[in-house]
Design a protein that fits this description.
The protein is an alpha/beta fold. It is built from 14 helices and eleven strands. The strands form two sheets. It has an eight-stranded parallel β-sheet, covered by helices on one side. Strands 5-4-6 form a three-stranded antiparallel β-sheet.
């Protein structure tokens, strides 16, 4: 396998998300409202050997349809690329959508019992704090409880509509989003299993589960669930979005027999590329997904990643085949 085959170009910059500042978000939104700018960055990645590209469902953000349109154009033009679409899971309790802040309040309440430091980590995480009013709204939210967990459902009709745009595209993996963590903490492995089965019925048999709480979710799902290929989870040298602790996430990644793909290796631009890729590939991950907001950033990131992978040689990916 070539080094660049382990890389996936992420989609967040293309939909206007930088995890750095509102000004940077606006810059991305303006830049990538132009399809030719999206294509320039994708072309730069392909020239350097990257063939896998993350994508989002068209209903996830205003710019997601344009990004997907450019990817489809590349496929129709004969480029041998594969997509890794992230599918947000529409969770319901009593007919109402699961509230994101109550969901995170639940993580905090449950994980704090065994990892006391998780409160500070969640409240101070720079990516989470990119949400306006994060701390205030989180602390004002009531955690969900056992009765709520029993009433959890997934809006299957909405899942079907989110899968539809990808039915005729080349897919490397489907990635159910990090709502997986909530289903795991609620003990609703049955719903994850049903999701996997439904995706397989639609022709998506290769699945990576998105998790942001690797330290608790990966060991739990490894023990009780099969039928999927691995995990997509934040991994970076400064511990951003690695819950409940950086150490527990690292330990879970090292112990799992399934493939792991790192996301947020650059921690939203807070880690230099060489340090970022040295860290994630040093953990023995299968691959890495990263975002880049320009041709220059794309080339710098891929060059650093390839040099790191070549330097590590056979050690890279050895834990997961």
């Amino acid at each position: 396998m070539k080094p660049a085959d382990r890389l996936i170009l992420g989609h967040m910059p293309f939909v206007g998300i930088s995890y750095q500042s509102g000004e940077m978000d606006e810059e991305y939104r303006k830049r990538f409202s132009d399809a030719s700018e999206v294509e320039r960055v994708l072309d730069a990645a392909m020239r350097m050997g990257v063939r896998r590209f993350a994508a989002a469902t068209p209903d996830s953000s205003p710019l997601a349809p344009l990004h997907l349109k450019v990817l489809r154009y590349l496929v129709d033009d004969g480029h041998k690329i594969e997509l890794v679409p992230c599918i947000g899971l529409p969770l319901r309790i009593g007919g109402l959508s699961v509230d994101d802040y109550r969901r995170w309040a639940t993580y905090l309440a449950v994980e704090e019992e065994t990892h006391p430091g998780v409160r500070r980590r969640i409240l101070e995480d720079p990516v989470l704090n990119f949400r306006e009013g994060w701390v205030r709204r989180l602390l004002a939210s009531k955690p969900y409880g056992d009765e709520d967990f029993l009433g959890l459902t997934i809006d299957w009709a909405l899942i079907e509509s989110r899968l539809e745009p990808f039915l005729d595209l080349p897919i490397a993996y489907m990635e159910p989003g990090s709502e997986t963590d909530f289903l795991a903490i609620a003990g609703r492995h049955d719903l994850i299993g049903e999701l996997i089965d439904r995706m397989a019925e639609r022709g998506f048999s290769r699945i990576l589960l998105g998790v942001h709480h690797a330290g608790v979710t990966i060991p739990r799902l490894d023990e009780v669930l099969g039928g999927f290929d691995g995990y997509v989870t934040p991994l970076n040298s400064i511990g951003v979005m690695m819950f409940p602790t950086k150490g527990s996430a690292e330990d879970a990644v090292r112990r799992t027999k399934k493939g792991v793909y790192a996301i947020k290796p650059l921690a939203g631009g807070r880690v230099e590329p060489r340090e970022a890729f040295n860290y994630v590939f040093g953990l023995g991950v299968e691959g890495c997904m990263f975002g880049a907001g320009s041709v220059k950033e794309t080339e710098e990131d891929i060059r650093a990643a390839v040099e790191v992978i070549n330097g590590l040689g056979h050690e890279v990916g050895a834990r997961h085949g």
